[in-house]
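Exam revision sheet. Question 4 asks you to relate a sequence to its structure. Input first:
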Amino acid sequence: MAEGSFFIKSNNDGCFQLKQRMHPSLFESFKLVFDTSRKIDIEKNMYNQFSVSSKADIQTVINFFSFSGLHSLIGLKGISYIK
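Answer key, structure tokens:
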């Protein structure tokens, strides 16, 4: 399971980030799903990390989770998005 978060950086830019220990090929597929060329970072030589911060990229992520009918945001992620 990957952990995904919406957050605001110290410079007030909005961001979305996914992080997971395994499956680097899964993270490469996120670039296709979200139609971006952002590189996948490796954090602490353990975690794959996918991050986007442009308004267009974040809107693509929101559309994917909110309007596809397949992957709705639920639980704390849904609550944090609404706030």
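Marking note for examiners. The domain at 3-82 is CATH 3.10.28.10 (Endonuclease I-creI).
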